[in-house]
Amino acid sequence: MTTTYRLSGVQHVYGERCVVDIAHLSILEGEILGIVGPSGAGKSTLLRLLNFLETPTIGHIEYRGSAYDGDVPLSVRREVTTVFQRPMLLRRSVSANIRIAQRIRGGASGDALIDQWLDRLGLADLTDAPIRTLSAGEAQRVALARALVVEPSVLLLDEPTGNLDPYNVGLIEHMVRSDTDRRGMTTVVVTHDPFQAKRLADRTALMISGRVVEIGETEQFFTDPKQPETRAFLRGDLVY
Amino acid sequence: METLARGFGEAVQLLLEFEPALLEIVGLTLQVTLIALAIALVLGIPIGAALGLARRIPGRSVLVPLIYTGMGLPPVVVGLFTYLLLSNQGPMGSLEWLFTPSGMIVAQTIIALPLVVGLTMAAVQAVDPDLPVQMRALGATRRQIALTTLVESRIGVTAAVVAAYGSIISEVGAVMLVGGNIEGETRVLTTAIVLETRKGNFALALALGIILLALAFITNFVFYRLQLRQGGP
Amino acid sequence: MRLRIWLFVVVGLVATSCSGDDASEVHVLRLATTTSTNDSGLLDSILPAFEEEFDTRVDVVAVGTGQAIELGQAGDADVILVHARAREDAFVAEGHGTERSDVMFNDFIVVGPTDDPAGIARLSLATDGFRSIAGAEATFASRGDDSGTHSKEMALWAETGITPDPNSGWYKSLGQGMGETLNFANESAAYTLTDRGTFLSQSERLPALAVMIGGASIDQNVDPALLNPYGVIPVNPDKGGINVDGAAEFVAWITSVDTQEAIGAFGVDAFGQPLFYPDSEAWRSR
Known about the structure:
The complex is a heterotrimer of chains A (240), B (233) and C (286). With 240 residues, chain A is of the alpha/beta class.
């Protein structure tokens, strides 16, 4: 199995604080990697590094065999995208918000593709609805459609279902799973909810204080964790 | 009270008669105002957007207060400055723009520009700071991020356009000084109002004032409809 | 409700405190006049004597003759001091004012660019100068504001039989005050008709302009049409709210020999010649 990302000796520092400190981490082609951990563990920062939104202070991130220092080619950047916890939509219609992703890439606007995604995510009736009229779940589904319509080869999800009801959580998880499998996409999902990782991820990692404490096959991670911190976290103890 | 009633009557009559002299004044008013507005927008929106987006520009701590001051520039001071600039002894005297519509456009552009820059900057800064991050995560270039943010702040930018338009169409000090209120050449609604008031033709002056307000209202009505369509208010 | 009661109390207190102070109550006289009397500094120079003598504050509204007359017609002034003889007579004839009295005069002059493209400097009559200007289509700046000066200019054009057209290119109708019109003429190499006082007081800042018709002082002005008489008219008391006594006192005071002397002395120090010449009946028969 090939790797999409290989991190070695990566540290990222904000001011005096080292928020990410990863000695080694490989993210595999076509897998869904779940990252769990308490808030402040550096999960979101890790995603920002993986999306090339920031450059690590020390060490390097190898993406598909190449390490980039600062200047990441646009074509490489455009293979990756992130859905954040807040959907960050434009004050326009639903379809315009999905079209913007295509526009950014300069591709011809594929209205058929947009309709397809609206349909898959149960938004077909809302095509022309203004964004401010959407519920939180609908808005997050639009954000997911916006990410998937350009068929990224890496999808990063940062607490994508943080405040949503079970119906929306189920719909979004289903869509992520099916698109990952259909296109062989690599997906990293950061979540504070261990059950989401358990449902969705092929492998799961626990991050605490910027470090990856344990990583393993999801089933093994939950049934037979090796590290005491993982056991504590899964018991629901407070870990830092 | 009588003068007021007479003014309204005369305004209606003037409009119905389509008097050529009045049409010329209205035409020049719109021409000068709209050209000055267009120049101010073409220059001011990119500058305002740049200042709103890039928070680390050298000299910003001086530039921004300077723009805020410019937003409240007394038109008569702008008029005086433009007058001296364009006068025969001034550095731009050779253009021979004093007492011409071009000179008036220069003065009004100077009045409108800080308003456009300042309000565009504020509008762009009011956009959620996470939006550019999301756009970059979608693979946008810096240019695309800037453009998307600007479009997202369009309601605020429309307010900048409205404020600039209102301030220059109703402005009298600068156009009087720089234009000279020459009949058939540089006389606009505001200077005509001053003139008719001085002549004691209060009813006619009021009629012209009503026409000026109507022009402002019609244009603002159009702007507001645009704003509504953009997802406002 | 309580607020309204309080308002009554406050208003009442203010009212009592005002009327209880009768002894030192200041009378106010509203004088509507033309910009030339005010901008030249004449009123500032002579009015304090009146204010002291009659314990009256004079509120000066300095506007164009047209607006000054309109203010009188509306009863928004107690007395007017203007210079447009025909309109002054009409004002009285229509019953807006009681009686017109001569006060003073100065004169108009024609000024123009020093290189004199219309060749009028050798002429002595304004109408001849106007004909040459129109013939040469040399730029002419008109006040165009219904002021006394503008009325005089139109009367002169009427005498020449020429009706200048504001859209002709050479005739510029500005609709502005004398100072602005002189600035325009200075910048645009234009001829214009001006009262001598305003031109004298600004001539330092008008290097491109020189006197063409009217001579260096009023003694050398040989065109009787250029004389510029000022009259004073009390507004008709029927308008209501008019300070009748104040207006009468003002007319008597400004035409008195003492005040006339002060008018004749004004400006001599600064310009080497008076800006206004006394001309009241009392002065002429002193």
